[in-house]
Amino acid sequence: MAESDNFSSTHSVQGTYADLILANGRIHTQDPANPWAEALAIRDGKLIGVASLGELEAFKGPNTRVHDLQGAFCMPGLHDMHTHPDLALAPRYSDDLDVGIEDPTPQQLRESILAYADSHPGDGWIYGQYWVRYTFREAGLTPGRAWLDSVMPDRPVALLDRMWGTMMVNSKALELAGIDRHTADPRNGYFERDDLTGEPTGLMIDGAYAMIHAAMPPTPVSVLRRAYRDGVHFQSSRGVTASKYVHVCEQRLQALKELDDSGELTVRIEAAISWQDDIFPVRRRWELLAGERHYYRSARLSANAVKFHFDGTVEPKSSYLLTPWPQESSWRGKLNLTPEHITDMVVDMDRKGIRVIAHCTGDGASDVFLDAVAEARRRNGFSGVRHQCAHSTLLHPGNLPRFKELNVIAEFSPAAWYPTPFASGARSGYGQERLKRIYDFKGVLEAGGTAVMGTDWPVASIDPWLALETMVTRQNPWNDDPACFGDPISLEQALSVITRNGAVAMGLEKTTGSLEVGKSADLIVIDRDLFAEPARNYIHQTQVLLTFVEGQLVYDRHSTLQALGLKAVWQGEPPVLEGKA
Amino acid sequence: MDAQRIAVTVVSGFLGAGKTTLLNRMVRRAEGSRLAVIVNDFGELNIDAAIVSEVTDAVYSLQNGCICCTVQEDLLAQLASLAQLEPRLERIVIECSGVSDPQRIVQTLAYPQLRSQMQLDMVITVVDATRHLQLEGEYARLARAQVAAADLLLLNKTDLVDEPQLQALREALGQRTRVHESVQAQLPDALWLDTELDLEPRALKPLTRVSADDHGEMFSSWLWQSDEALDIEGLRGWLQALPSDVFRVKGLVVLAQGNKAHWLQHVGTRSQFLPATDEAQARATRLVFIARRGFDGWDALGRGLDACKVIRP
Q: Is the peptide bond before A190 cis (omega within 30 degrees of 0)?
């Protein structure tokens, strides 16, 4: 017989004794009333004692397991409040066409398409990469639907170009996507047309990809499930107990639910439904927002959030700023939606109890977003939902106190809050004056607001310890370059950011984020005392030894607790998901 | 060719190939025309400060009327704002980074926001005769992409290589590509600047020489005219088969399909058609060819066009 459900409710029977006692630790609790402890007692997934070992004697019964931490550092689990394992990993796991040649000639491309079609019979899409323009040019051929039709006339084909944002599609793909000479171009791209007839040539440029993606079957749940499984495996083994997967659709929620049902969702996940179709289409958006999202709900999984892209990014200068970009007389960047759209949406979602997570890199975008939240508060009162300003790359100084006033979470992503060759080049686009106040943790915290961290993988590393160290140093973690981006915060502040503030951002501040009696046992044991040495080149090397979520042992690096009869979901070294940065 | 649209010349070429020398020549050639040059680094151009008349928003206005500025991250926005300048620009020259594929910029120019205001005239890639064949790996791939994107190759520094090396380069660059050989990135005006189109019907033969051939010009131009409409597929086939000594074809064509007049611009191996708006000009087909001096295939070209004629009932 399978393990029975064991939920707790008002009249549940509670045992007297602890299931597990962790003893002899250096326990950093994040509870201001009781900041350090030596031992923890856990029963039914919750902390029933946070104190000295002597004080916990009473919880020790005949069946209580006791684990000696031997002085190891223990703390609440980490909170990564913005990341995308699906976007990083699913493309690797999809069984798409991979030509696998650096400069395929049209002939090689043709053979590759035909071979894929043979091994994947039927009438389904052939989607993959890469082709290159210059081999077509050298062969005296024109890439496009005519050429592709000559290879594969009756199955839809879409192939990406190696370097520069072109997708080549055949007539069948255009037909399925409903694209002809009457179709308008998207705002962020176009499809090439014949000069004389206006008919699409089969080359889709930049944002026009999405028109084809919309007609393709979604990424299979099995692929997404594998991506999320590897994501939570990594996160658990790096001490993350709660995370936000920002951008989901019904397929992604199904994949997360399957993981949850199979006991492998070892991180508490808040999944944010995409408001726009710019990354992948969300076919059941309105059903999900109306209530279908509750179908996926558990202690580990919630989809009570919506994510949207309000402005762009630094590199193409599409972040929306309050004043023009350096060396520009009037260009302030771009807003993807009107302020009226965002205001009505925030008011409506707020009333429904759905958290709005708004991508705002420029100070102009966050200004408009905060105005929208102010309007929601005025109309709805405080709904109890804290909305989230994602990335918050640049904030107007006048907005720092508004995070507290309006109950908005300021989320910062480490892509460029410390100097690297990439960050120094890319972010220099903002100009020196703006660079000084980039990712202003300190400003938000000093104004009483809640600041959190989101790794934003694959834009930056998914490793939370790199983010933690660089919050404290704001310097390159791998060398001794003295350059520093923005204002550092103290280790104490950074630990609050990555634990209890994260819990606030999840709406779980009564459940997790600190080690207090009555809260869930979401905690980690690590290989070093974080306060023992200067942060630089120290904190990011931290190894996690144990991770618990809801009192369940989800990660046990050296299988230490197996002797007590506790088997972790994940064991051993963390999986390698990314190359060295 | 189309007065409504600003012509855009894209200059590409590997690091050290001679792009800056070429751009410098273009800036100096700008006298009296409304030319804007977008470069990677204004300092590299080595413009004498004395001839800079005004600097605003990092845009340098020169006394000869030329405007220089550096490439912005958002080229789309930069071009859109240049298109608003008054008096209106005639031409914009854009320098690509030495280690980039010009295709990116070519694609930007075709964005719907720009299409009605500017038109790609040609992509010129400067090729370093001394180094092109020695590039390896990713550099070789980039150089290949630059060559493939070009409507015209300026094979530069030919004085620094011997004849067998030149021959090897010509072979490597391919038969189909238009190549002009140079020493110090000299680019004849006829290859990149618009010559006035004389589209007045002539009572002469269908095929007439319109340039003098006697003062050392490197190129000659001819006019072909006809009152008959042309078959589009036939014309496209004819354009694709043009000999590589013919660098440009431009003018008005009346197409049998729809019986409408279009501006035709053909550079290298790339053709563009735009509907002609001026009905008064839509009466007959008049095409101007620019070819290397000494080209002797005119009659064959004329016969090829004759074969495209569709006799109207």
A: no
Chain B positions in Cβ-Cβ contact with residue A327 (cut-off 8 Å): 57-58, 72
Look at B101 and A327 and tell me if their CB atoms are within 8 Å.
no
Of A266, A233, A242, the C-alpha closest to A552 is: A266
Closest C-alpha among A240, A237, A235 to residue A76: A240
ipTM: 0.80
Q: Which residues pair with A23 in a beta bridge?
A: A68
SS3 B281: helix
CA distance A574 to A527: 14
- Binned at pLDDT 50, 70 and 90, residue B164 comes out as very high
8 Å CB contact between A505 and A497: no
Q: Model-level pTM?
A: 0.73
For residues A199-219, average pLDDT: 89
* Residues of chain A neighbouring B42 (CB-CB closer than 8 A): none
Banded pLDDT at A426 (limits 50, 70, 90): low
Instruction: Calculate the CA B83 to chain-centre distance.
Output: 19
Cα separation, A128 vs B59, in Å, equals 43
CB-based contact B274 A195, cutoff 8 Å? yes
* Interface residues of chain A, partner chain B, Cβ below 8 Å: 102-103, 132-134, 137-138, 140, 163-166, 185, 189-190, 192, 195-196, 205-206, 315-318, 327-331, 429
Task: Tell me which residue in A132, A137, A195 faces B273 most closely, judged by beta carbons.
Answer: A195
Pick from A310-319, A361-370, A529-538, B175-184: least confident: A310-319
